[in-house]
Structure formats: structure tokens, C-alpha cells
Amino acid sequence: MTLIVGMAVGITLIQLIGAYLRYLPFEARLLPEERARLWRYILLWSPVAMGLYVAYFCHEGLNVASFKGVQYFGWLPFFVFSVVVIRHGAMRHVFVAGMQMLWFFMLHTMSGALILTVLPPFFGMGVNRLPTQTALFIFWFLVTLPLERRIFRNLLPMQLFSGSRLAGWCFAIMPIGLCATPLILLIDRPLMYTRTDILLRFVLFFWGVTLYQYSLYAGERAAQIQDERHTNELLSQQLQALETHAGLLQSRAEDVQRARHDLRHYNRLLMSLLRGGEVEKALDFMEQQERELLVSPISAYCENPILNAALTVYMQMAKKEGIQASCEVNIEEEGSQEGDKDIAILLSNVIENAIIASRKQPPGEREIRVSLAYTEQEYALVIENRFDEPLQFGADGLPTTKEHGHGTGMISLRNFCKKYDAEVIFEQINGWVRLLMCWRGVEKT
User: Fold this and answer.
1) Which of 46, 82, 106, 276 gives a 20 to 30 Å CA spacing to 291?
2) What is the pTM for the complete model shown?
3) What distance in Å separates the CA atoms of residue 256 and residue 150, rounded to the nearest whole number?
4) 183 and 236 share one domain
5) Domain total in the chain
């Protein structure tokens, strides 16, 4: 009975080790209350699991078959607790469980290798093999704990599941697939390993690590390609904005030149009319001249030339499409050149998004409001537009779209938030879509 209780305690410790390793990849993203809730469930279930293992061993006997049965299925309740509490997608949980399984497979193999090559035969024979295997597994876990913490805490980089959902699931089940075949073959085999078995298991672990590293490289490369494509799109958008702004400047310059040229003729005609006593005609010519001089000047939204260019282009674009557009800018001083450029790109993208959304509104119900302020080294941006259709939001709280050719604006917004550690709130209330952003400025260059 003592041996049965000891084995139940040892296997429960192994299950707790598995739960701990599966917890590490999500640790940094969890709130304190989520961590407390998860470990409360795990620690409350542990004595229950221990009692079930004792009852199972008493009923079936402590042998290789019952030992494997508990190892194969005892971890499932602990896994369910993780999935229920840590809401970061079933795909990631399955992948983490598979990698933990692959790591456990290696620790069991290391324990078997030690029994086979170093320890006296007594520890590998009969009923002694089971407690020896369990004790050595816990020993190897403790020895490799610093390495395990480093590996599992960095197991889920951002780009790991950046592809399609189908590709993500194929990758997520890969570690479990690697372990499935040898585990199925081990069901009816004794616990004693041969040197060939040990070698094959180390090779299995090697290929698992190799595939994981290649997947990391592929994910990083895909993210790099996406960033390069996005950069090219932004450069193209900047060039188009500059060309539009240059066209506006040229048009206004021609208007001013024409007005100055005509002013001389107006003055001559005016003097001729006044000398001839035709006062009414003189007044008509003066009113006509005033209308010419007041023709649509370029709006100056702020003194910063880069930001003013971006605001001018897209506010003019909105007004040409019949959208009621207003802009209020309160910037005490100029920021850095790089910061101004990034803010101009951000403004171009989010205002263009608002224009695209406004096109779907009925005429007369299209409106955009832009507010940008900079005080005490902090920027605050608010962009509002009317939009009646319900928006779909992603896990990061930003709108998502499945329309082909759209979504660049949100990519630009995400990149900006990442670079400047910006706080973002995106909401839709009573037919208005509102973007609120706050970030600290960078030093002048």
C-alpha cells in the first residue's frame, strides 16, 4: 500500500509539472486574478487526482499497464483547467500541450537511459522499475528547470501563428502527431527499453525541435515579407499624398498669378469707369474682383508642414466626396522629424479609413471629425465618423475586415502602436465609430 500511495504522489507531481510547463508560455499575458484562479483549480484537483490514482492502482494493481494508463490520461483534467482559464485560443493550447508532451517524452527517455546504462539492474527489474522511473523523471525535471523555463516562456512568439487558420492548426497538432505513433506502439510493450529505442526517441526529439525552429524562421520570414509589402504601400501612399498636395499648391499659385495679372486690368477699367461717372458699373467690377481674390484658399490646419500636408490632402478628399469634415489641431511645438512623418502616415491611413466607411453611409449622413492635440510631451488623437453597420473587432480590439484590398490602415495603426507604445480605444456607439489614441512624443532630432 505504501508503494501505491508513493506512486500516486509521484504521478500527481508529474501532472503538476506538466501543468506548470503549459502555464509558462501564457504567464506574461495573464492577469493576477487569472493566475490565482488557474492554480486554485489545479491545487484543488491534485488531491482528488491522487485519491483516484490510489483507487485505480488498488483495483487494477500496480503494473506497467496501469502506470501507462494514468500517464496517458491523467493530465487531461489539468489541461482542461488551462483551456478554461487561459483564453488565448485552443490552437495555442494544443501546440503547447504537444510540445510539453514531446519534452516529457525526452525526460522519460533520459530516465530509461540512466536505468539501462548506469544504475544497477535491481532498479530496472520488476516492480522497482516504476518508482525508479518516476523518481528519475522528477530528478531530470529539476536538473533542467532553468532550461525548461527559458524554452517554454518563449514558446509562443507573435509570428508563430500569423498565417491562415488551416496552416495554424496543422502546425499546432504537429508535436502531438510526432508523439502519437511511438506512444501508440508503447501501449502493449513493457517498460524496459533497448538502446535502439532510446536512440530513436532522441532522434524523434531532434526532429521535433528542428521542425519548430524551421517554423519560427518561416513565421519571421512571412512577417518580414508582410512588413516590406506594407512599407511599399505606405511609400506609395505618401508619394500619392505629396503629389496631390503639390497639385493643390500649383493650382493655388496659378490662381494667385492670374488674380495679380487681372488686377492691373481691373484697376484700369475701374479708373476709366470712375472718370466717366459710371459708379454702378465700377461697384460691380469691385465685387467681381473680391470674389476672385477669395477663391478657396488652402486650409492651414497647423503650422507643422508635414502634418498640415496630410490633413489637407485627406480633408479635401472628404469634402470632395460630400462628407462633412472638421479638423481641430492644437500642437504647442514641433516634434521630431521621424515622429512627424509617422504621425502623418497614421493620420493619412485612419482618415482614409473613415472616408471609405463614410462612402457606405447615405448622403446627408456622412461626417468625419478629427482632433489632434500635443501637450506636455503627450499626443492625443480622436477621429470620429458616422457608420451604421456593425463592426467586427479582433482580439486586439481593432476592427477587422475580409474585403480584398482593405486592412492596410489597421496594419499601419498596429505598427504605430507597437513603435510608440500607444494606448488605443476603438468603439462604436450610437452610429458613431470613434478612435481614441494616446502616446508620448519622441525627442527632437
Assistant:
1) 276
2) 0.54
3) 67
4) no
5) 3
